[in-house]
Here is the input.
Amino acid sequence: MSLPLVVAMPGNEALAGALEGMLPAVGVGLEVRRFPDGESLVRVVGDVRGRDVVIIATLDQPDSKLVPLILAAGAARDLGAARVMLLAPHLGYLRQDAAFRPGEAVSARIVGRLLSAWLDAIVVAEPHVHRIERLEDLYEIPAIEVRVDAAIARHVAARCERPLIVGPDLESGPFASAIATHLGAPWIALRKTRHGDRDVTIEAPDLSAHSGCTPVLVDDIVSTGRTMARATRALLAAGLRAPTCIAVHAVFADDVAAHLAQAGAAGLVTTNTVPHATNAIDVTEDLAVGVREALLRARHEVHLPS
Here is the structure.
């Protein structure tokens, strides 16, 4: 069977190169440019006829990336690709998984239908969904969720004695629990009340039983950093050491590192799902495992664009 082909959307070249050796796969060129009126021109450079094509595109700042992605998938199909899959280490438009006011677009479902129309499978690391039980519920194609709690646990184990894994809010509790389980360490979840996009309050329980531990704050996404900063202050106020902050996806809207340093955090670390200077946890092998699963599943299902 022929090796799958890897197509890197702009900014994903390094990850695509690493995955080529791990899968293994062969790289295919891609040209993307914008016309003066803002429209995108996309060209797949290579023979993809009868081959499985894996498009690599981390979808932070997704508004500028979704149209070129769909054009790349469509071009691969027009060129005769057997199947077209997407590896989106970070997938945007997942937080709005319900309408909180009448008339709001449920973007998680709408974007899910859009991607399902042009892809045969999708692979996502730690998707940011809370009210939807499974990522696959949003798609009409196989949707593989890649967990990176083990990779984070290995990073913590190598650098921290007596860790206390802390979720900054109740929603992050299962993620914190999974990391703590790998470590055989205690974990807690703080309580967050959100008053606005940049205004939150954090309450901590009695932490006296963990006074000798080193707190490690963990979450899937850090955007403004306000939640992590408030959680850091709450831990320090409770008498614990300065926490290290770890996020899966570096979807930073502000100068997050500066906010956390001002709050008293010991440092900020992220995985390489979104390229950033804070990337220190390599989850490429985990992503490769997810892609291999998607390839196996997609080869046993027939999916054509509507």
Observations:
- The longest strand covers residues 26-34.
- The chain has two domains: 5-147+284-298, 149-281.
- The domain at 5-147+284-298 is CATH 3.40.50.2020 (Rossmann fold).
